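Notebook, bench 3.
Goal today: get a predicted structure for Succinylglutamate desuccinylase from Bizionia arctica so we can plan the truncation constructs. The sequence was checked against the plasmid map this morning, with no discrepancies at the termini. Length recorded as 324 residues. Pasting the sequence as submitted so the record is complete.
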Amino acid sequence: MIKKTHPEDLELLGEKIKLGESKKLNFNIAHLFTDTPVEVPVFVERSKNPGPTLLITAGIHGDEVNGMEIVREVISHKLNIPNRGTIICLPIVNVFGFINKSRYFPDGRDLNREFPGSTDGSLASRFAHHFVKEILPVADLCMDFHTGGGERFNAAQIRIEKNNETVKELATIFNAPFTLYEPQIQGSYRDTCSKMNIPILLNESGKSLNLDKLICKEALDGIKRILSHLKMLDTNFEIPTVNKKSVFITENHWIRAEHSGFLHVKVNIHDYVTKDQKIATLSDPYGSPSHVVRAPNDGYIININESSMVYQGDAIFHISTKTE
């Protein structure tokens, strides 16, 4: 349970922000080759009523635009104006990657493997360091929005660490279709939050360079439920009803292509499949008989590779193997 309040002025990026104030700040630590500064907008909304500080981010990977769309809608719908406390939104953390439609920073690094960063490392590492030192410490709770990489479409899901009851409670309240217990990845934003004892919900929805309004709505509904739980949701908004509880997945694995060729998917995201069920076929371009892909176990389909052509060994489905 998040119980913190911050009645004092909020100090962020060299500015003091009083209760009841709104600010658009610029988290800028680097320039293009032309010496043009790269703006990373930071939107801060403080209620007149003290309360916790929620940090909402997207675009740590610059091509994961569906996460950015979720945070954009938070701002455009004015969900970020809290009934109490403070909401800080960074719709695009990795503006460099966004400009280039790339997952990576211009130095070729994955920003989500550079946390907590350093003062004398790569550009991505320096950026991560300044973020961790200048923005992250004010947060009482973080929500970070991602998508599947490449052509892989992720079912709407929250990823959390095991044995953290606070985070598990928050994931239950968010109520994405799936909640996955996933180990921390060294150098990730989520790992750094965990080490700083800041609860974080990592959302995965959709695939890179693609917008999906339906899956965005699922995430926005989860945000509203969290805000309501924290007593931060403005009274103009209704609390979304919960028609089906999140499925907590304790173990999962990837199904990989045994042959190269055209991928013909026979199931849908979120489907529950049974062992040996036909879930796809793989065929070459020359009319040879297709190879059938069957489910190795009963489970939920939580990721589908939407690429038309795959190589032998490519991940084509993500399937649950154990649930709570």
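The first strand starts at residue 10 and ends at 12. Residues 224 and 238 are 8 Å apart (CA to CA).
Flagging this for group meeting.
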